[in-house]
Design a protein that fits this description.
The protein is mainly beta and about 450 residues long. The chain has six helices and 17 strands. It has a single domain, classed as Beta Barrel (Porin).
């Protein structure tokens, strides 16, 4: 029997999730910090690059620590959502996460030029609405859930910049999505957050986004010329199912490894007209573990008919393209003023993945009103397509009359309120069409509140 929600959605505070916070706080030598905007200038008590929070410089303590080489990152929050349509029932759920981090500038601390260390620990809680009410979506309505409600070591890495900034090396415990396929988490639906390689079915078994980390190393050649800025990078990340243990976020041993993930990525950061910055990335990956075919067993028969395990194969691969571009002038940086847009594509290996591809696009208008220069209107649309190879097998087994698996469509509309540095409230509405690619499932309508808060 379907339950009825008798209360309205309360305004509730949500922080950036660990994957987003780690991505934001991790040093990015190839992407220079944008200049502060005139509408939201850096306070006199804050230095460029220093983490800002609602508590300012903590009475001078945070600023003193930063000048000594210690940048502290602390926050807590949650995401609340209720489904007005779709799923097996109606309810309101709240999920949350705390993060604790520190960035250490080893030049200021110990005189080691170009050396940095980043430590981030996260703790999640709550049950997401998508699972609780069986919404059937490929991507969750609340993105900051999963991997267990435990304390996790999300990052512990050393970074060294060499050759006057031309080369960056990084090693330690790292989420892949911090550096490869990295994308912000301003929206609440998981379709528009971080690297989808690590959030879609089958991909999350080896492409570890935050809050999960794995032993890794990467090298980046930074292109910092006057006419060309960007980077070319490659990495090696251990694939180890034990690192995703939902009961223990500090499994740090190498035992249990099944292979390695080898991602590559190239990016350029043009500035069209001198005041319209952009970011253009293209990347690919290959993962070496033994796995199974998603559609056929060892005898070449459909696994949906035989019930047998998929045939053994080695390796998984895919590629991604990410574009962000400022459309109207914004000398202060990408997304700081006026209209900016994004367009993302991820393509998976059809032998081993239930999902074939995802395409997501959206737009953000910053400063919609003269009195609200830092608020934002934002809209995004995503199409997640089921692997047509798997869909063909389902139709073959179930008969030509079956609806089969197609594409899931998700739309999200946000209004983001920024009352102070380090604080953002984002009421939103989401539509999920053909959840899981099935047109016979009820479409999902959900409303939610996402707020980012750093102290």
């Amino acid at each position: 029997m379907r339950k009825t929600v008798l209360w309205s959605l309360p305004a509730i505070v949500l922080i950036q999730v660990a994957s987003a916070s780690a991505q934001t706080n991790a040093p990015q030598a190839s992407t220079p910090d944008p200049a502060p905007s005139q509408s939201n200038p850096v306070p006199a008590s804050v230095e460029p690059g220093m983490t800002q929070g609602v508590l300012g410089d903590w009475g001078g303590v945070r600023l003193d620590l930063y000048r000594q080489g210690i940048d502290l990152q602390i926050g807590y929050g949650n995401q609340t959502a209720t489904n007005l349509a779709g799923g097996t029932g109606h309810s309101l759920t709240t999920i949350g996460q705390a993060y604790f981090g520190a960035g250490l500038d080893l030049y200021r601390l110990a005189g080691l030029s170009g050396g940095k260390f980043q430590l981030t620990i996260t703790k999640r809680h709550g049950v997401n609405l998508t699972a609780k009410e069986n919404l059937g979506l490929y991507q969750q309505v609340q993105e900051a859930t999963g991997r267990g409600n435990v304390f996790r070591l999300t990052q512990a890495s050393y970074e060294q910049t060499l050759l006057n900034g031309a080369l960056t090396m990084k090693a330690g415990r790292l989420p892949v999505g911090n550096d490869f396929g990295a994308f912000g988490c301003d929206f609440m639906n998981l379709s528009f957050c971080n690297a989808p390689q690590g959030t879609l079915p089958y991909g999350y078994t080896y492409f570890y986004d935050g809050p999960v980390s794995t032993w890794a190393g990467l090298g980046r050649v930074n292109l910092n010329g006057k006419s060309l800025r960007g980077y070319i990078q490659a990495g090696v990340y251990q694939t180890n199912p034990r690192t995703t243990d939902p009961t223990n976020g500090f499994r740090l041993g190498f035992a249990g490894g099944t292979g390695v993930l080898l991602p590559v990525e190239a990016a350029i950061f043009p500035d069209l007209g001198g005041d319209r910055p952009g970011s253009y990335k293209i990347g690919a990956w290959y993962e070496t573990s033994r796995t199974t075919d998603v559609a056929y067993d060892g005898e070449g028969q459909p696994i949906l008919a035989t019930g047998q395990a998929g045939r053994a194969v080695r390796g998984r691969y895919g590629f991604h393209v990410q574009i962000e571009q400022q459309i109207t002038p914004s000398p202060e940086g990408l997304g700081r003023n006026g209209l900016s847009v994004f367009f993302n594509i991820v393509q998976f290996d059809r032998r081993t993945s239930l999902v074939d591809s995802q395409i997501a696009t959206g737009a953000t208008w910053t400063g919609p009103f003269a009195s609200r220069p830092n608020d934002q209107f934002a809209v995004a649309v995503a199409r997640t397509q089921t692997n047509p190879r798997y869909s063909a097998v389902e139709r073959r087994v179930a008969g030509p009359a079956t609806l089969g698996l197609g594409s899931e469509y998700v739309i999200e509309l946000d209004y983001r309120i920024v009352p102070a540095p380090g604080l953002k409230f984002s009421p939103n509405v989401q539509w999920g069409i053909s959840p899981g690619g099935r047109s016979d499932r009820h479409n999902v309508v959900a409303i939610g509140m996402k707020t980012s808060l750093s102290l």
